Amino acid sequence: MVRIIKKPEEIFGEFTKDHQTALGDNLESIILYGSGASGDYVPGRSNLNFLIVLKKVDLSQLRLCAPLIRKWGKRGVAIPIFLTRQDINSSTDVFSIEFLEIKENHTVVYGEDAVKDLPINIKNLRLQCEREIRGQLIRLRGAFLEAFYSQKQMEDLARRSLTSFLPILRNLFRLLKMKMPSRREEIVEATVEKFSLNREVFSRLLALKKGQLKLKKLEMEALMEDYLEEIQKLAGAIDRLKV
Fold this sequence. Notes:
Blueprint: H1 12-23, E1 27-33, H2 35-38, E2 49-54, H3 59-62, H4 66-73, E3 81-84, H5 85-89, H6 96-104, E4 106-111, H7 125-146, H8 151-175, H9 184-195, H10 199-209, H11 217-239
Parallel strand pairs: 2-3
Antiparallel strand pairs: 1-2, 1-4
């Protein structure tokens, strides 16, 4: 039986030892980010996300991590991101949202803090926010059609989709030079308030994500349709945003 991870820190020791064994001196840092670092982790529902910083990327050595990915994946750990410091420093302009999120919400599990002093230029942040929102919307429409005949797949889609939007929503408040919320509920509430979205739609999505809401098939379809409409409204609002 797979043991559910109740708190992220309970696996830090074993997770670190596994990767020290596989990567040896090439391992520089292990950094937890995402819901496990922000306080939004829900046992049995949330994934744990790790950034593993290497001195160099050696594919022959990375193969030794394949069994670890399988082992920890069974317990809800997402496939780690393997990067060197040079990879990180040269990617901040392309992935400013992602690295800003990691920089502001992370826990150093092993080694040095490779992101604490990371310089990130946010001049293209509005464009990236709009691009990400519209890209997510396009993918969400396709995934909705793919999941149409399965209520379980549709529920899983709603949970995953809301999670993928959260970093983008947080960074909208950075653009507006407003106080940036950190918890999931605060982010959603602030976005609904600022952009005049349908509060009921997002409240139901949050309840569904936390396992507090059960819907019938037709109710789930209606919620997803309303959700897609609200994301379309949000994309339009970002396009008109003056920063």
